[in-house]
Amino acid sequence: VTGCPSEETWSLYVDGELPPEAARSLDAHLVGCRTCRVLLLALREEAELLGEALLERPRRSFVTRARPAPARGLAIGLGPAVAAVALVAGVAGWILERTPSSVEWLNPLRLTGASEMLFDLVFAFRDRAPDLFALAVSVAAVASVSAVLTFVLSLVVRRRVWPGALAIAALALIGAPSTSEAHFGLHEHEDFDLAAGDTHEGTLLVSGENVSIDGTVAGDLIAAADRVAVRGTIQGNAYVFANTLELSGTVEGSLHAFNNVAIVSGEIRSDLYAFADQLTLASVGRVGRNASVFVDKGVLEGSIGRDLFAAGGWSEVRGAIGGDLHAWRTRVELRESARIGGDVEAELKSEGDLKVSAGAVVGGETRTRLADSAPESSLARYTEPSFYVLLAVGFAAALVVGMLAHAVAPGLFAERLETAGEFFGVLGLGFLALVAAPVALMVAAVTVVGIPLALIGAGLYLIALYLSGIVVAALVGAAVLRSEPGDPSRFFLALVVGLVVVIVVAHLPFVTVPAHLVVILTGLGLLVRRARSWWAGRRAAGAAVAA
Amino acid sequence: LSEDPARPLLQRARDGDADAFGELFRRFEPEVSRLCRRLLGAGAEDAAAEVFLRARAALQGYDLDRPFRRWLLAIASHHCIDQLRRRRTEARLFAASELEPDALADPGPSPLRHLARAEERSAVVAAIDALPDTYRLPLVLRYFNELDYDGIGEILGVTRGQVGTLLFRAKRRLRGILEGEGGSRS
Question: Could you tell me what percentage of chain A is helix, strand and coil, using 3-state DSSP and rounding each to the nearest 5?
Answer without folding.
Answer: 50, 25, 25
